[in-house]
Write a structure and sequence with these properties.
Distance between the termini: 48 Å
Shape: globular
Helix content: 25-40%
Strand content: 15-25%
CATH topology of one domain: Rossmann fold
Structural class: alpha/beta
Number of strands: 15
CATH architecture of one domain: 3-Layer(aba) Sandwich
Bound molecules: NADP nicotinamide-adenine-dinucleotide phosphate
Order of helices and strands: EEEHEEHEHHEHEEHEEEHEEHEHHH
Strand order of the largest sheet: 5-4-3-6-7-8-13
Number of helices: 11
Largest sheet: 7 strands, parallel
């Protein structure tokens, strides 16, 4: 597809070179942003953080929340209708079916949501000249040699990882300005309680024994910190791929111990195992994690370490 200049209804000429405009050019109203998937872990905190200074609309899919609009992004017409009516300047896409095991079991469904559904959003955003902010993962790598930088070559080993990488490639070919945020092992206070830390706290409080892999290495990322960093990147008008993750490289067992210590729960209930022992369907990138030198050099917000993130989480829960 040939990339050209577009006119959007507000009369601003937009092309790859001059868009996005830094926030201060919008006066007191901030950017007009649309978040697809504002009911999820990352989407919800993005919604809350961006609301301070920007005009934000958010969508949910199966978890209704006050103020959010229902949208199934696999429904092409409805996606185009919403984006066409709002004409946002930025479309943030944390929406996904991120369950790695479910993706391996139902690859067609995984692609329907994570590739085709997101594709409808990309098309609609392109039609109104909106910038795309897409959330990706270190699962685009094989885990042979992490932590990874933005320039390392992806080689996904799971259905979920291949779907996310397929979207990354599509975005990189698009005419719209784009920002891909790669993140990993995201935790924090979460309404739906799905993330690793929320699940671990719940099970330890119930006195359950929890098996945790000691051979999956990553860089845990505190969700509110991730969202503050993304806000800064968007306001600075950054484009391209950015790793946004915590600075601490550790295995999942060490992370679980840090959770138990911070929340004063029984560490002896946490049993270290190998990933193979868990018998999961989807292969995991064992030596994963993300290097954050690039983002650290360009923003003011510090990236939160594991104990800092967990302590803040405990304070606000
Ligand atoms: N969490 C992590 O550790 C992690 C790590 C790396 C990358 N990521 C990426 O970050 C993004 C956000 O992750 P998350 O942890 O915030 O996931 P999440 O909590 O599961 O949120 C997913 C969001 O997508 C929405 N959604 C699901 N199916 C949809 C559909 N068909 N149409 C429209 N919206 C739909 C959900 O809506 P409802 O809840 O209302 O159904 C929810 O708002 C994902 O793209 C994921 O791949 C996450």
């Amino acid at each position: 597809m040939k990339c050209g200049t577009r006119v959007i209804p507000r009369g601003r000429y937009i092309n790859r070179v001059i868009f996005p405009v830094p926030r201060q050019r919008y006066g007191g109203f901030g950017m007009k942003a649309l978040i697809i998937g504002a009911s999820g872990q990352i989407g919800h905190c993005l919604y809350e953080i961006l609301k301070g200074g920007h005009q934000v609309t958010g969508t949910f899919f199966s978890y209704p929340q006050a103020g959010l609009i229902k949208l199934d992004m696999t429904e092409r017409e409805k996606v185009h209708k919403l984006v066409g009516a709002l004409v946002p300047e930025v479309v943030l896409i944390p929406a996904a079916m991120p369950n790695v095991e479910a993706c391996e079991e139902k690859p067609e469904f995984c692609y329907q949501v994570n590739v085709d559904g997101v594709g409808h959003v990309l098309d609609a955003a392109a039609q109104v000249g909106a910038k795309i902010v897409y959330f990706s993962t270190d699962y685009v790598f094989d885990g042979a040699a992490g932590p990874y930088s933005e320039t390392d070559r992806p080689n996904p080993i799971s259905v979920y990882g291949r779907a996310k990488y397929a979207v990354e490639q599509r975005i990189q070919r698009s005419c719209s300005p784009w920002l891909i945020i790669r993140t990993t092992v995201v935790y924090g206070p979460e309404q739906q309680g799905k993330n690793f830390v929320m699940g671990l706290i719940r099970r330890l409080k119930q006195g359950a024994v929890v098996k945790v892999p000691r051979d999956q290495v990553g860089t845990p990322t505190y969700a509110p910190n991730l969202c503050r960093v993304v806000k800064e990147l968007v306001e600075l008008g950054k484009e391209g791929i950015y790793n946004v993750a915590g600075p601490d490289l550790m295995n999942r067992y060490q992370f679980a111990l840090a959770v138990a210590e911070t929340f004063e729960l029984d560490k002896s209930l946490i049993v270290p195992v190998s990933t193979a022992e868990l018998g999961q369907k989807a292969p995991r990138p064992l030596n994963g994690g993300l290097k954050i030198n690039k983002v650290q050099a360009q923003i003011k917000t510090p990236l939160a370490g594991v104990y800092e993130g967990l302590r803040e989480m405990k304070r606000i829960m």
